[in-house]
Amino acid sequence: MSRSASATLAGQSAFFLVGNVFTLIAGFTFQIYLANQLGSDGLGLFGLYEASIAVVVGLLSFGLAPTAVKYIPHYLAHYSNAAIHRFLRTGFKVLTIAGCSGYLVILLVANVVPRFLPEYAEILSPLLVMGVMLPLGLLLFFTMQSLRGFHDIRYMVMGSSFLQLTAKIVFSVLFFRIGFQLIGYIWAVVLSTIVALLWMLRGLKRQVLNVPESDLEEGSVTNADPWHNYAKVMYGNSLLATIAAPLDRFLVGFFVGASGVGVLMTVKVLQGLPGIFLQMFLAVVAPMFSEANANNDFASIQKLYCITTDWLMRLSLPLLVFLAVLAEPVLGMYGEAFQAQGTIPLYLLLFSQLINLGCGPIANVLNMSGQEGVMFKISIFQTIISISGLVLLTPLYGIVGATVSILAGIVFANFAALYIAGKALSLRWWDKRYQHWLVPVIGSIAFCAFIANSVESFGKFELLFYLVCNYLVFHLLHIVLGVNDDDKEVIQEFQNKFKRALPGSGV
Known about the structure:
Layout: H1 4-60, H2 64-77, H3 81-116, H4 121-124, H5 127-130, H6 133-149, H7 153-177, H8 182-209, H9 227-244, H10 247-255, H11 258-294, H12 298-325, H13 327-332, H14 336-358, H15 362-368, H16 372-425, H17 438-454, H18 460-481, H19 485-501
């Protein structure tokens, strides 16, 4: 892999990083505000509605969105513009029909069931609004992944991190102010999704216009298009996720109650905060893995994997340490129920996230390197492990049992994927740059422990201030230890861009 690849990865990730920092700060404070407005019961009830829609979305997604990430760059590399047009037309047509049909079924259920079971009328009525997320969710995810395939990270980040989240916050505050609570938040989610979808459709249209359908005759590639088989495997993965992902909410809701679902959602949101950095790099590196695999360049895959894992951990570790050491005061911001029930589950989920991030983009390496079939088998076993644990442990231990089951599935999937990647692709996990994590982590733990023992009470903005300080401690220690060649190349690249942007630079 050329040295410029690390600069390319960093350059495309930089805008994503800005969006993720905004998501981290705005999303964290908004989640606290939302929990205080809806309470654990209201938040848990929304989570059950959201999980129900997610099940139907998974059933109707047909694996098209993740297929866009692999095959749009594949077709671009082979100058197969007409194949791109056919794929996008097929995707939008199938998902629009499926989403609208699914919403009609939801309308039927929400209107017919209360006639025979009137006690469910109040519960089912919000589905009339929430059901709109079915076609919207399908189209938004497909459009986002198509933009990823075109490497249009800026448009995607602007739509998802800035516009969608900002619109959700604004609409939520407005609806709460006029007296709408749960139904108001549902409307805010729907309206913000529409805003994001319109923005991303505009960006995708720009990209499609840049690849005119003139290089291949219409119909030259029909059912032989290679994306069909890949989409089937991705759809299989989607079905597994559809079965396993919402099961924890439903079981906790049944055995613990809606309040337990609200607590579970909150700790999963906190667990997911470090994961936004993984999504950031995946948005950029997945198409790069696909291109390298198309050129049989496994050395590039190895180097991209190590660079991504290193940068991912350096961005995530300060946040993981902060949430782990300050788990109780962080959860206390949401309310007493969240702190009382969520501390141990948060520890478990943070450990699972540490494993997940520490293994880097290993699932993407396999999926983009022709090993999607093996990855699908790993997903099957992960689903079996998670579901077995949820069914056995949730009735006995509630939220803790559910999070132990999630942890077990994540640990298995990541280590199994690493083993397969080593056997099939000769991919190695270890790189000497990883040894520079140790000292900054120790410094970060010491700083957070000092804060936990010296500060009596925390507010939202105080927590954010201490989090920023923790990042400074971690990265200053890392700089003292010395930066590697890839870091130096990225620094030089940004310095050159800055110099070219200065007045009088002659550029």
